[in-house]
């Protein structure tokens, strides 16, 4: 099963899925997050609705919104957009440590991993707001070696997984932090199939991709369209050759409404390069429809299925 902002959905009904996108983001520090009132909420809905309708019309059914709490998460916006589009929209629990931990409230910096996990488990058990529950855990770390706060966040995400079965998607971006995150999961006896290495396409050394894949983690190549298509096609050919295509997730990391900017200042990237540019290129390369189906349907439903994965 997966948990959407409207409740449980059978993983078999997820259909075509985008695993890492954003509807709204607020880059201000945790203490200065802008309050989203009904007026602003309506403005966000009005601006973002056409982008979501566009992917709905391209045959997508499921959309993972990867904006954590204190980076602008607003589950009411997501629920309205889910109702208006008919898309399954999934939100998250967890804290975002990247950006020098400015999205983790300073009053929490001395908490223990257990304390962090307790807050996130509570969101799962009691709901975030209006009974809306998270469908995965999103965390983020600064480039390695991991600082003390980031280590605690990662351990907390492992604890929360063991308690809830929610998959952990961790923003990385370079090899040292990605490997250290994987190591902490191993120490906490969590099977690495419960871990998605977000922004794995930013890890330059392909040997590290293989090392993480061999450990069982999912790799997210989520900057499709933000780099030359050849870059991702090349990565795709390499993982197919190595036999790891079942462990690869793709997305755009696109969108979004930036909270704090006016309507006119918004600069939104649509969620469409996979459909319009990437898949045609895969087909040109002779990559089968079956593989495309894995990338967009089977792999996401396997990765985000809610179940405890112990080592
Ligand atoms: Zn993102």
Automatic annotation (TrEMBL):
Pfam families membership: PTE
Gene3D superfamilies noted in UniProt: Metal-dependent hydrolases
Source domain of life: Bacteria
Keyword Transport: no
Cofactor: a divalent metal cation
Cofactor: how bound: Binds 2 divalent metal cations per subunit.
Binding site for Zn(2+) 1: 20, 22, 138, 253
InterPro entries: AryldialkylPase_Zn-BS, Metal_Hydrolase, Phosphotriesterase
Gene Ontology MF term list: hydrolase activity, acting on ester bonds; zinc ion binding
Protein family (similarity comment): Belongs to the metallo-dependent hydrolases superfamily. Phosphotriesterase family.
PANTHER family: PHOSPHOTRIESTERASE-RELATED, PHOSPHOTRIESTERASE-RELATED PROTEIN
Annotated protein name in UniProt: Aryldialkylphosphatase
Source organism: Dictyoglomus turgidum (strain DSM 6724 / Z-1310)
